[in-house]
Amino acid sequence: MEPNETAPESDKLDRIIEARMKLKRRFEEAMQTTPSMADEKPLGSGPPNRHGMPQVPKSQTVTKKWPVLDLGHHPNIPLDKWQLAIDGEVEHPVRLKWADFLALPQTNDVSDFHCVTTWSKLDIPWVGVRFADLAALVMPKETATHVMCYGFDGYSTNLSLEEALKPDVLLVHTAEGQPLPREHGGPLRMITPQLYAWKGSKWIKRIEFMAGNRLGFWEERGYSNTAYPWRNDRYS
């Protein structure tokens, strides 16, 4: 793990908190004005979620099951071989092993999962690491505006930093009290509760911070670049 792998845990946590607060100040206004938090006419039904949007976005059907959707390949990554690279427009690129990832601050959260194929699974309990804490570890340069996330299956997806840095965006290893199943992206996937779920890479292996935007796998094939569920923003 880089940098400062021998620093005391308390010092590492202090640095992450300080860097996260710096990022929060830099992107807070943009985050607060994103459609999933500030849309005056959101499309959907049901009681408001914690961001004030209707719980179920337009054209979604709630399911208790968790359908499996992917590119048809479920990578099998032994934990002793697993690594996550975080690089690009950052001050301190890192390559984390599994033990390094678990040593980072762990977050418990409950959020909803909205798939572009019109189903939603509500109130999923997750455990993982906030994307914001990973960003704080590497410290994005002032030039960074977007990220591209890559999976071990060859998948890629892009999102803006104001979306990625929201506190409910996690890289999760546990769902519903169990290790994340391989078919759902285990051992680690990203979740984006305020965007359609294709914006969170399964089997994630690399996060590239970018100066500008590029399209990912589905975005190149006609899916929305922004993916806002409460605007029914599925395709470009």
Which outline best applies? Answer: globular
Percentage of residues assigned to helices: 10-25%
- Overall mean pLDDT: 94
Radius of gyration (Å): 17 Å
- The strand count comes to 13
Through-space gap between termini:
39 Å
H and E string: HHEEEEEHEEHEEHEEEE
Strand content: 25-35%
- Derived from helix and strand composition plus strand pairing, the structural class reads alpha+beta
Low-confidence residue ranges? 1-6
State the helix count: 5
Largest sheet: 6 strands, mixed
Oligomer: single chain
Can you describe what's shown?
The longest helix has 24 residues. The chain has 236 residues and is an alpha+beta fold. It is 19% helix and 30% strand. The strands form 3 sheets. Strands 3, 6, 7, 10, 11 and 12 form a 6-stranded mixed β-sheet that branches. The protein has a 5-stranded mixed β-sheet with strand order 5-4-13-8-9. The N terminus is likely disordered. Helix 1 crosses helix 4. Pfam families: Oxidored_molyb. This is Sulfite oxidase-like oxidoreductase. It comes from Larkinella bovis.
